Automatic annotation (TrEMBL):
It comes from Pseudoprevotella muciniphila. Keywords: Signal. This is DUF3244 domain-containing protein. The lineage of its organism: Bacteria, Pseudomonadati, Bacteroidota, Bacteroidia, Bacteroidales. Gene3D superfamilies: 2.60.40.3080. InterPro entries: DUF3244 (IPR021638).
Length: 137
């Protein structure tokens, strides 16, 4: 009987992880984003083009244990422009990503020094900024 109860508990635990997302573990922190009125880091034309204007911003988590940024979305997002920027404004990482529905897309940030970093997403003709701190937790 104890084995059955243990299996039920384990099943319930995994069900919670899958229903709320694997990235939402105890070591994962959701990154809130703020929409900026203008680009703080622009390309030579001062603008960034994103996917279709109706798509919602992906959810991004910083995993403090594995040191990854996890991106998830309920919709397919093609051509998502993402930058990781340090406190002084230096672009550390720049990627054009595709986010598949119900599949985590990651950026490895384990090589970053301790400190404050910004994640900048250019999407829907807008600029969104969030922050995270490797080693600061």
């Amino acid at each position: 009987m104890k084995k059955i109860n243990l299996r039920i508990c384990v099943f319930a635990m995994f069900s919670c992880l899958f229903s709320f997302g694997l990235a939402q573990s105890l070591d994962s922190i959701p990154i809130p984003f703020t929409m900026l009125n203008g680009d703080i880091i622009g390309d030579s034309h001062g603008r960034h083009r994103g996917p279709a204007l109706n798509q919602p911003l992906p959810v991004v988590y910083y995993d403090t244990t594995e040191e990854f940024l996890y991106f998830e979305s309920e919709e397919l997002i093609n051509g998502l422009s993402v930058q990781i920027v340090d406190e002084s404004g230096v672009i550390i990482e720049e990627q054009i990503m595709t986010i598949q529905p119900d599949v985590y897309t990651t950026i490895d940030v384990s090589n970053l020094s301790e400190g404050l970093y910004f994640i900048i997403i250019y999407m829907n003709g807008r600029t969104y900024i969030g922050e995270f701190e490797p080693g600061g937790i």
